[in-house]
Write a structure and sequence with these properties.
Blueprint: E1 7-14, E2 20-25, E3 36-37, E4 40-42, H1 49-61, E5 64-77, E6 82-94, E7 111-115, H2 129-135, E8 140-144, H3 151-163, E9 168-171, H4 177-181, H5 183-194, E10 199-202, H6 206-212, E11 216-219, H7 221-226, E12 237-242, H8 245-253, E13 258-261, H9 277-285, E14 292-295, H10 302-308, E15 313-316, H11 326-331
Parallel strand pairs: 1-6, 8-9, 8-15, 9-10, 10-11, 11-12, 12-13, 13-14, 14-15
Antiparallel strand pairs: 1-4, 2-3, 2-7, 5-6
Length: 336
């Protein structure tokens, strides 16, 4: 239950072109002094989140926000009060203040650019911690089907996806035995990912994922519901497929890193399945503390709909894989 008297706070994730994000250190005279946080501040009366974000980043950091979109909402209860962190990804910004590392903000607070991979080493307020998972994930999650025919063509398609900017993949075979039969292919795909700072999750048992030293496991809903705890340690990503609130709640309970919720739109491959629609999608994910990807009939224009609905982004298979031109197919999406 979300309390009526929570503090509504706009939070900005500001990135540079070196795969770093900007952190601010809380001053010594405030609650949770000395902890690092993503910059932002409370909404004023009648302010929208976008307006508050622009105002706070200008006041604190001399940052002008040119574009931004929702990333994740986090509800958290502290002992003395409750907060709603309305976290937005700042897509484009300008600031003379942030030209160097190790400087101070307008309020005297220490600010620092930190590698995304090093965020776990910093001490954050409890409410900020779920933001880290969202920051470390892209907005696009590509599903790769079981190969049919020439493996060289499959590898070329995968390479074209990497060249076009895809950095998170799911390899989905019909059963675990297919991974063993395609061992050479799987090994090649993993090598391509390691050389391009991409990650490949295997839609398999955790044991198969460990055997291939993949970047993580993607649990189908059946496997998800059979587990009572996270199946792999934090050196691996753990994702899950969900279709309803029960599965989403269980995914959160076992501490998955993210989930995929489907079907949002009607799909050709599952015509009998009733689509959730965006309103239902939003109602299911708005109080979750893990990133969620929308899946099912996703088109390029659904990316912004997913952000408005509280999603990390979208997951796609047929909209990209198997298209004549991978580059042209991916160019339609705003994040690639």
């Amino acid at each position: 239950m979300i309390p009526d008297d929570f503090l509504h706070i706009a939070v900005g994730v500001i990135r540079n072109n070196r795969n770093q994000v900007l952190l601010s250190r809380r001053l010594s005279n405030v609650h949770q002094a000395g902890l690092w946080e993503f910059p932002g501040g409370k909404l004023g009366p009648e302010e929208t989140v976008g307006e508050a974000l622009s105002r706070e980043l200008e006041e604190e950091l001399a940052v002008t926000v040119n574009s931004a979109h929702p990333l994740i909402k986090i509800y958290h209860d502290y002992e003395a009060y409750s907060v709603l962190l309305d976290v937005w990804q700042v897509g484009s910004w300008d600031s003379d203040l942030l030209d160097n590392n190790g400087c101070y903000g307008r309020q005297g607070q220490k600010i620092e650019w930190v590698d995304i991979s090093e965020l776990y080493k910093r001490d954050f307020p409890e409410a900020n911690k779920p933001i880290i998972k969202a920051v470390q994930l892209p907005e696009f999650y590509l599903i790769c089907p079981e190969p049919e025919g020439n493996l060289e063509d499959y590898i070329k398609t995968f390479a074209a996806c990497i060249s076009a900017g895809v950095r998170l993949f799911q390899l989905r075979f019909s059963d675990d035995s297919q991974y063993g039969r395609n061992q050479i292919l799987v090994t090649e795909l993993l090598e391509m990912c390691r050389s391009s700072d991409s990650r490949l999750l295997m839609n398999s048992s955790p044991e198969v994922t460990i055997k291939f030293v993949a970047h993580g496991v993607h649990l189908n809903s059946r496997r998800l519901m059979q587990l009572n705890e996270r199946p792999l340690d934090n050196n691996f990503l753990v994702a899950a497929s969900c279709h309803n609130s029960r599965e989403l709640e269980h995914a959160c309970k076992i501490d998955v890193d993210f989930a995929v919720l489907s079907p949002v739109n009607r799909t050709i491959s599952h015509q009998a399945a009733k689509p959730l629609g965006w309103d239902k999608f939003k109602s299911l994910v708005e109080t979750l503390l893990i990133p969620i990807y929308a899946l099912g009939g996703m088109q390029a224009e659904d990316m912004e709909k997913s952000w408005s609905g509280g999603a990390q982004g979208i997951s796609v298979l047929s909209g990209v894989w198997g298209q004549k031109s991978i580059k042209q197919a991916l160019d339609k999406y705003p994040i690639v």
